[in-house]
Fold these 2 entries.
Entry 1:
Amino acid sequence: MCGIIGYVGHEECAPIILEGLRRLEYRGYDSAGIAVHDGQALRVRRAAGKLSVLGDLLAREPLRGTVGIGHTRWATHGKPVEHNAHPHVSGGIAVVHNGIIENHVELKRRLQAEGRVFSSDTDTEIVAHLVDLATQRGLSLFEAVRATLAELRGAYAIAVLAGNDASKIVLAKNASPLVVGKGDGVMIAASDVPALLQHTRDVIFLEDGELAEITRDGARIERLDGTPVNRPPQRVHWSMMQAERGGYKHFMLKEIHEQPRALEDTLRGRVLLEESDLEASELGVTPEAARTLKRVVFLACGTSYHAALHGRYLVESVARVPAVAELASEFRYRDPVVGEGDLVVAVSQSGETADTLAAAKEAKERGAQILAVVNVQGSAIARMAHGALYTHAGPEIGVASTKCFTAQLAALTMLALYLGRRRGALTAERAGALLTELVAVPHKMRDALADAKHVEDIARAIMHARDALFLGRGLSSAVALEGALKLKEISYVHAEGYAGGEMKHGPLALVDRNMPVVCLLPDDSTLEKMLSNVQEVRARDGNVIAVVNTEEVAQNLATHTIKVPRTAEEFTPLVTIVPLQLLSYYVADHRGTDVDQPRNLAKTVTVE
Ligand code: F6R
């Protein structure tokens, strides 16, 4: 996730673009850049680090001009260093891009064979080269962009500026957001509305497969096939703060709703449907190492530990490799047996959690291969690991992890499938069926999110509870732990997650009519056993909230039922966690707690 902006007007645009980028910083903040046409040529300034570093650079080396583009980056391809910061320039073309170009490797190879020299590790730079080549063939900028898009596969919102034309910017969108604002003698486009609000409230949201040319006087929009688009601007009434949260009341709610997109971005370019396999060059785990490794050890804390439990389960069941998941905070203090033949997977949203970093270092010193599954490029854990499988969730601002959790589940699922294929534990046919289902999961998440109002009603009914239980079996036991953690950390309601079968060994004593018990009852291999556990709860008058695929399952058992779409058993947590996140959110919101910054907690825990 990154933020892009383009401005064509009458004012000096560098400060305007910088301010717009500041409004988009929630989308990415590891490096930034800006290109301005000064009337004669393109001038570019780029800097690694927060936007303030670019601001300082512009103060020392100002840019003058009234047409320009800008970018704030959340690295996906290539480290967050200056040469990977956007805009990327080739010949007379500058490009900023948000998204992931899936076929960038093959395009780059072809362009290099044609003699093109690349100066970054990004997928974006190929766009600059392709547009430059097309303009050299005599196409207008608009047509050159159109011709380039025909070659791209993946997600993009791009803004393109040419050195030989200071009157326009060309934009295009597919699966990444882009909105065009129409002011008085000024057009400004950006990834999100907050970047435009100081200039206009009249906006046109571009649709997938559309490209646009903006000049001071207006916008010309067409579909890729040349069909003209005449969509009048609409007026937005959000306050700046509402706009920054996409109209949601809290970042956490916004991030819960961003999950289908985060999942799509994490799967993009890695799921190879035609080959029934996964692209795994980032892993640092060669096919040979995948075949011969003896054990997988997952290390993580908090929510990431719950994702690790999911990884452990799938690596064992799908790849048939012995696997354990360990709390990183405990791992180092028991002189663990770990070393050669072990693949240690350090799972962390921030990539900076001190416990996880220290545990992974310890394992590395003892000879284990380290794989980082992290969301932040270039973070400490990513740097110390032999390989990194990045989750592409974009920055997470709410302290409670939501979209990064589901992106971790997806990454670890891909790891398990990759190992399964290499080790022969998973046939191509089964892998093909699973991968086809996996790419359908974001749609199922969207369906689950569409039920938010119903979940809010349930939250209202249980919001005064002092305690709550979450139960699940198999893969759902990790979901139960995560559901309980979400509830306690943001609403301060005491909550416990349990494997359903454990109830009778103690926790059942807690159950009475005041106890909400959230039961995960997807149609999977554990359903029958789980139903027996729910009967035990019902017999003690527990207030059952059932998460099901089929409503009949919970008849006569549940006070409240939440139905979510069915998926393959291996992917069920990606869908069932959604109502649990929403439930926690609404309980907390109705109780009036500080949802995005709960008391006593920090987003990144860099102390042991
Ligand atoms: C809970 C939460 C924390 C983190 C934990 C590890 O919502 O966010 O439990 O999961 O502090 O953080 P990372 O994943 O950054 O290592």
Note: The domain at 253-448 is CATH 3.40.50.10490 (Rossmann fold).
Entry 2:
Amino acid sequence: MKKERILVTGGTGYIGSHTVVELQQAGYSVVIIDNLSNSNISVLDGIERITGIRPDFVEGDCTDIDTLRKLFTDYPGIKGIINFAASKAVGESMQKPILYYRNNLDTLLNLLDLMGPEGVKGIVFSSSCTVYGEPDVNPVTEKSPIKKATSPYGNTKQISEEIITDVIAAGAPFKAILLRYFNPVGAHPSAEIGELPNGVPQNLIPYLTQTAIGIRKELSVFGNDYDTPDGSCIRDYINVVDLAKAHVIAVERMLTDKSEAPVEIFNLGTGNGVSVLELINTFEEATGVKVPHKIVGRRAGDIEKVWADPTYANEVLGWKAEASLADTMRSAWAWQQRLRERGVM
Ligand code: NAD
Ligand code: UFG
């Protein structure tokens, strides 16, 4: 039986596309809105090849409330929203703070404004472990202190969490689940969808796979003098399909009135801290492909180490990261090879 209609903003993006696949496979009907500022329409073909279903798609900007109003009229009965639409490059946000505050916050405010009147029962919001800044203690739990944001991008996530909490405290007739992602990596095992960054990648895995295939000469490892066992930074790399599955659970929880509080917050990570050098090793061992790399100076603003305590999500959502890091690296590599086959890069 077909389940409810879910609106996925930013649904042709990296995490959004993987989530649309999981939603459709769980029986939900999906309508995507995306302005294609950081994704490509061909992602819909990938989703259709995996699921056999082409999701409804509106090309539009969530900062325009009239576009959203029209969407709710054209696609009646939306019961849940997953809000991925945002600008997400930390460095760019330092250069263009107004763009970041406007895009990320206007999008959220418009959705919150319309949800009540449109009868939407819940919203899932993409937050980030950046809200913890440089933690005093690892792993971090949802109760760990929120540190002052080090970028306008990080600040939009903190402010967004506060806006949602305030709106619901003021009596809004819907629920929210804030998901704090650690470092999403990898691609769908079919290699039909994956991460497709514009230009030179800022993030580790796309830079690594582009180096492995020869697009980039060598990977720079930003620092080996941190207070970590091998001196390189530590993160919690979470498989994107595992991450996507948590969104389906979160939507289901709100739509079936299982939330234990009007606003719930969950860390989505594996619980394992992995260093940059360990990650390169894992990739090389998993794929048999060497990654030329060199140690360079630290990158300004980098956190030394952060990883999740995912116990709360494990116990309350019944969700657990399952993919091994080696399988995740193989999926990232298969996706990079697929892009080459298709002549994308
Ligand atoms: P992404 O850039 O691949 O996807 C975001 C999508 O939103 C893109 O398709 C883009 O075109 C669209 N978009 C942006 N502004 C829009 C607007 N105003 N109207 C309509 N569409 C718009 O990014 P992603 O990695 O999939 O991230 C999804 C969400 O998760 C973002 O909110 C991001 O901040 C958050 N997040 C990502 C990471 C990460 O490392 N990838 C970590 C923590 C949190
Ligand atoms: N790194 C390198 N070389 C590179 C790129 C990255 O050594 O070419 C290192 C970084 O120094 C860091 C680690 O790899 O130690 C991971 O870096 P990423 O840029 O991939 O990820 P970040 O942890 O810096 O930040 C990412 C997203 C943020 C998000 C955060 C938490 O970019 O938007 O994860 O979810 F908020």
Note: The pocket of nicotinamide-adenine-dinucleotide (ligand 1) is lined by residues 9-10, 12-16, 33-39, 61-63, 84-88, 103, 107, 126, 128, 181, 183-184 (CB under 6 Å).
